[in-house]
């Protein structure tokens, strides 16, 4: 006896389940991942026994031990510091200027920079130091 055989049609591969899996993975990594601000220049903060904890001001200046000057995450040359600070302070002259200076930076350079900030019109200066307890700055 001969039976007629039917050929099975191949089922189409659906990508909907693949899209669902990719969407779940995307959501997982968005929720589980953590965005962290990476410092441009590694700065070793000096130790201080006294002082008070202040919020970092809207204008953040980093002075590296190799004469790097970074204002609000933008590398700036020494010649443009005064103009950049004036531009930032034109928005609001009462803004706090937070200075993160490397512990190995010469004190003369820090004082000259603070004088340049005063010449640009900055009156609210904050110098960040390490508490000396080995914890967070």
Number of strands: 5
Give the helix level as a range of percent.
25-40%
**Residue runs with pLDDT of under 50 for 5 or more positions:** none
Could you give the distance between the termini?
A: 90 Å
CATH topology of the domain at 59-127: Nucleotidyltransferase, domain 5
In N-to-C order, the SSE pattern is HEEEHEHE
By CATH reckoning, the class of the domain at 59-127 would read Alpha Beta
Describe the global form: elongated
CATH architecture of the domain at 59-127, by name, is 2-Layer Sandwich
**Major sheet strand order:** 3-2-1-4-5
Q: Gyration radius, to the nearest Å? A: 28 Å
State the secondary-structure class. Answer: alpha/beta
Mean pLDDT: 81
**What is the overall number of helices?**
3
Largest beta-sheet characterization: 5 strands, mixed
Key structural traits:
single chain; 137 residues; alpha/beta; Nucleotidyltransferase, domain 5; 5-stranded mixed sheet
């Amino acid at each position: 006896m001969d039976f007629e055989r039917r050929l099975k049609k191949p089922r189409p591969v659906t990508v909907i389940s693949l899209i669902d899996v990719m969407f779940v993975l995307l959501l997982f990594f968005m929720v589980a991942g953590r965005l962290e601000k990476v410092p441009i220049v590694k700065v070793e903060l000096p130790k201080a026994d006294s002082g008070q904890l202040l919020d970092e001001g809207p204008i953040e200046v980093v002075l590296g031990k190799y004469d790097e000057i970074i204002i609000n995450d933008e590398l700036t040359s020494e010649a443009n510091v005064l103009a950049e600070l004036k531009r930032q302070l034109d928005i609001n002259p009462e803004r706090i200027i937070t200075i993160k200076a490397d512990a190995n930076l010469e004190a003369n350079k820090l004082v000259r920079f603070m004088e340049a900030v005063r010449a640009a019109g900055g009156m609210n200066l904050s110098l960040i130091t390490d508490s000396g307890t080995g914890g967070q700055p």
